[in-house]
Specification:
209 residues; mainly alpha; Tetracycline Repressor, domain 2; 9 helices; elongated
Length: 209
């Protein structure tokens, strides 16, 4: 490999690491200031970088916002979705999803709690590519919960009369309520309360979980 090729490869690798560090900071900052509050200027200040340095990676605020949503989605998938995919289909997957969500909060991955809990509410009235990206991810994980519920019904773990759409809404409501109380009051006990509420709703006793 020539010295020129080696330098190019090193430069590209350095650029990828810098971009990853920028997005990590952007996701965290946006859970506090919101996606609309995420600007090249305040992110540069937070990272102690020049605006020009950030513009080299993101040409506009919208490009930065879209990349931030994608980075948050990758983290959420790793910490919340993936553990549930490896669980036994049905109620166990529902429990794994909810427990992983509570664990995600407890780890304080982001200072403002769940990225998508805040972004979904904030971007609901801000129509455009960023809102569409957030909505697509939110729809996806609601559909995943819905799918787990249908499997649980098919496996006779939940009653045949259970409405998957309604139960998905209920469980999502529990997750949002726990996130709100955990962030607002820094209340660790609400995480265990959330776990108990989910188990009671799914008919899972302490010995079964």
């Amino acid at each position: 490999m020539t010295q020129h090729a080696t330098r190019e490869r090193r430069t590209r690798s350095d650029g990828e690491r810098t971009r990853a560090a920028i997005l990590d900071a952007a996701v965290k900052l946006s859970t506090v200031d919101g996606l609309e509050g995420l600007t090249i200027g305040n992110l540069a200040k937070s990272l102690r970088m020049s605006k020009g340095g950030l513009y080299a990676h993101f040409g506009s605020k919208e490009e930065l916002q879209l990349a931030t949503v994608d980075a948050a989605a990758a983290i959420f998938t790793t910490e919340v979705v993936s553990p549930s995919l490896s669980a036994q289909p049905g109620v166990r997957q529902l429990l794994a999803f909810c427990d992983s969500y509570f664990d995600h909060l407890e780890r304080r991955t982001f200072p403002g709690g769940c990225f998508f809990a805040g972004a979904t509410l904030e971007m609901g009235t801000h129509h455009g590519p960023v809102q569409e990206r957030v909505a697509r991810f939110h729809t996806g994980f609601i559909q995943l919960i819905h799918q787990y519920i249908r499997t649980a019904v098919d496996n006779h773990e939940l009653a045949e009369t259970e409405d998957p759409r309604a139960l998905a809404l209920e469980l999502n409501g529990v997750l949002l309520a726990v996130d709100t109380n955990f962030v607002m009051y820094d209340d660790q006990t609400v995480l265990e309360l959330g776990r108990r509420v989910v188990r009671r709703r799914l008919g899972v006793t302490e010995g079964d979980s």
